[in-house]
Amino acid sequence: MIWRNIASNFLTLAIVLLIGAAAAVAWAKREFSGPGPSAVAQCVQIAPGASLNAVSNQLAAQGAISNAYIFRAGADYMDKARDLKFGSFLMPPRASMEQIVETVTAGGPSTCGTEVVVRVGVRENTVLLRDTNPETGAYEEVARWNPAVGERPAPIVAAQEQPGVRLSLVMAEGVTSWQVVEALKAADFLTGEVAQTPAEGSLAPDTYLLERGADRNAILAQMASRQAAILAQEWEARPFGMPYDTPEEALIMASIVEKETGQAAERPQVASVFVNRLRQGMRLQTDPTVIYGVTNGQGILDRGLRRSELDTTTPYNTYRIDGLPPTPIANPGRAAIRAALNPDETDYLYFVADGTGGHAFSRTLEEHNAAVARWREIERRQGLPADSPVQTAD
Fold first, then answer.
1. Number of other residues whose CB lies within 10 A of the CB of residue 160
2. 32, 110, 215, 266: which has the fewest C-beta neighbours closer than 10 Å?
3. Are 294 and 386 in contact (CB under 8 A)?
4. Cα separation of 279 and 288, whole Å?
5. Interatomic CA distance for residues 390 and 371, integer angstroms
6. Rounded distance between C-alpha atoms, residue 36 and residue 314, angstroms
7. What is the structure's pLDDT at 18?
8. pLDDT at position 200, please?
């Protein structure tokens, strides 16, 4: 009889324990998947090589999660415990632990925290300090510095030394290799002297994540490798019959297209004009190449071309030479390379600014002259000198 009572009590206890365990599991699942404790957006920063244990304790300490153990158990159950990605990730208010695990293991660009951005622009280089507004979750500019003007602001100096700060370089389409090197020189958290400016056109416009102490030459090599890969891919996919003998000639054309229009939709049309002119033996007659011959890609001209510059025969004066100039005149992006190799099928031989930021395209000299007359009137109304060079039938 006593053994029957013991067995009965043991069975009852086992059932209670099972019910309790089931309830605990259900509670843990609700905690893991339900709304989190933070009423405001949280910036979750994952250090390189951080362990799940360290990250879970960090999140609990900053109030992003309610229980570090449940966070670890949930990440393990999702088979993501070893998938943490370095970066800073903005979590919305009441983000669940499940949502946080998904975000910090998916990776991608950082979306919050402090960042120093070196921007290589067509007109100027700038260094920006940005930080996340915890209320809006948006990046806000804290300080801005033009390396060509004045001393580096103290907030930027201090931010560069902060652990966890995100460092990056954003290279715009159409900048020259000299401009890129100057921007890298201004990033004093980098190391290494650049002995020689890379070949024009050889660097890929893109965003590059940087590390404190990284070598400038290694960064340039990464840019060059990326551009070489892009050019090879686009060259391989080119249609038959393009008027280029080598990928380098296509890159030259892409750089001209990049500098001629700031409107992405126009690139294939602009490319079609130049390709048509090449096929008919007409000179390209494009201002950006002449300007490059004047500046050597070191800064912007910031004035109109002089008649003497247009009348002087140089390797880059496409009003005076036949065919393409000897090198690219900037670093084109993938879209411009693709446009140079896949131009629109048009009969256009001319284009001129139309006053809206775009261009008017023409098939005949008569149409072109009418478009030029309209542009001259716009120049007159705006008080601009009405003597900018235009394409002719040469």
1. 18
2. 215
3. no
4. 21
5. 11
6. 67
7. 62
8. 98
Task: Please check whether the domain covering 28-106 is classified as CATH 3.40.50.2300.
Answer: no
Under DSSP, is residue 5 helix (H, G, I), strand (E, B) or coil? helix
Contact 258, 174 (CB under 8 A): yes
d(CA 151, CA 51): 40
3-state SS, residue 85:
coil
Residue 355, pLDDT > 60, answer yes
> Please, what is the average pLDDT of the chain?
88
pLDDT tens, position by position, 123-156: 999 999 998 887 777 888 999 999 988 889 999 9
Helix or strand run (H / E) with residue 145 = strand 139-145
Comparing CA positions, the residue from 29, 35, 24 lying closest to residue 74 is 29
* Angle 216-255-146 from CA coordinates, rounded to 5°: 45
Please work out, in degrees rounded to the nearest 5, the angle formed at the alpha carbon of residue 350 by the alpha carbons of 348 and 354: 110
Q: Round to whole Å and give the CA distance between 319 and 157.
A: 47
Pairing mode, strands 125-132 and 139-145: antiparallel
Residues ≥6 apart with Cβ < 8 Å to 378: 353, 355
- Which two structure tokens, joined as six digits, stand for 269? 């049309």
Average pLDDT over residues 270-293: 95
Query: Cβ atoms within 10 A of the Cβ of 66, count?
Result: 16
Domain positions in the chain: 28-106, 114-230, 238-382
Amino acid letter for position 210:
L
Most confident of 56-65, 125-134, 245-254, 293-302: 245-254
For residue range 40-53, list pLDDT tens digits in order: 888 888 888 889 99
Q: What is the H or E stretch that residue 242 is in?
A: none
Q: Are 108 and 166 in contact (CB under 8 A)?
A: no
